[in-house]
Specification:
two-stranded antiparallel ribbon, mainly alpha, LANC-like, LanC, Lanthionine synthetase-like protein
Amino acid sequence: MSQDGDLRRKARDVATAVAFDLWRRMSTDFPPGRIYLSLSDPIPSTALLFAELAAYDREWEPRLHSVLTSAASQLRSAPGAGLFAGPMSLGFALHMASIVTGGYRSAISRLDAEMSGRVLDRLDRGEIARRLTTGRLDLPDYDVVSGLTGILRYFLLDPIRHADAIARLSAALVDIVCAGRPDRPGWTAVNPPVVGTDPTKFPRGHINVGMAHGAAGILAGLSLAAEKGVEVPGHEKAISTLADWLVAAKTDDVRGTAWPAYFAVHQKTGKAATHVAGWCYGTPGIARALQLANLTIGGAARSSSADDAMRAIIARRNPARSPFEYGLCHGLAGTLHAVWRYAADSPGLLPHGRLNAISSEIIARFDGNPEAGYRAWSRPDETTRTDDYGFIEGAVGVCLSLHRFGSGKPPATPWDAALLLA
């Protein structure tokens, strides 16, 4: 077996070993009674991993079904109104399972109809439009995690059935972008970016840049909608506005092109040193959003900025913000997958062997004695590490990224749609 083939085998073996350990621990570590149902928690996150594995080995289908059954039992009591939590997180897992098994279609139809009704009712009430008009818009109104952008991506999983909801959501995001002024973009958030941040540092709110909560996420969502054939009044203008704004917001220094995570409205820009290779606020997420815009409406300057930023990231030995960060959100797994997605649409950009180097970094840190394989820093002190079984920061996301690398093919299920990377 070649060196590349051996590394890919190791990546698959790690992903499968952690998945088996997750299954073993389901009855003891995730006891009935606690409400999970978010992509930060083991349920339904493990269903995303089990669905991907079931595409290669049907023995995972019963385990997948068991996780989905457990998730469905928590549906009525689980909070959450966006893509990452509550009913929509279950719906996302059901969509992945349906792609592999061909089942769950009636459950998806019922759940989607209920969620679509709620979303349309919310838009009809005009709550977000009023907050936009009065300058009270906040991140959960529009972001990927809880807001309109993530909800839009969810319904794009079935664009024909949900054409009305998709058009309404796209129009609402276009309205947000086009409501901006030179000194205050339309997506300006009234509250500080992080809970507990001193509000006096953001007296007029903050402007969020990244994929999870800011301009890049909206750009990716509108670009992906356009790719599916969706077009509402002002759609292309909004994409162009966001992309040009991101190009203007970038900074260049000895480490290459990068973006601030966010900055206060009264500042001209944020700190330039966010050379982070994660998804949420890092360069790969923002560069991928610009690339999606370029694939949709073109733009040489945007393409050049995105390519330069990604080249700077992949040239660094360890691009994660910390040598102990593994997850999709702001760790090496997010780097590995976002770089692969970007390179797939930009042939010749990626130096030979660079994905191998990133995946080797992850595999080398595998605990080995399962313990779910990967641990995340506990927040907020980041002095200890705890088991994290979720999709966005934990073992599930790491293993999905490794399994994709190990297979040498695109994912069998579009699990990275939740990250708006595709």
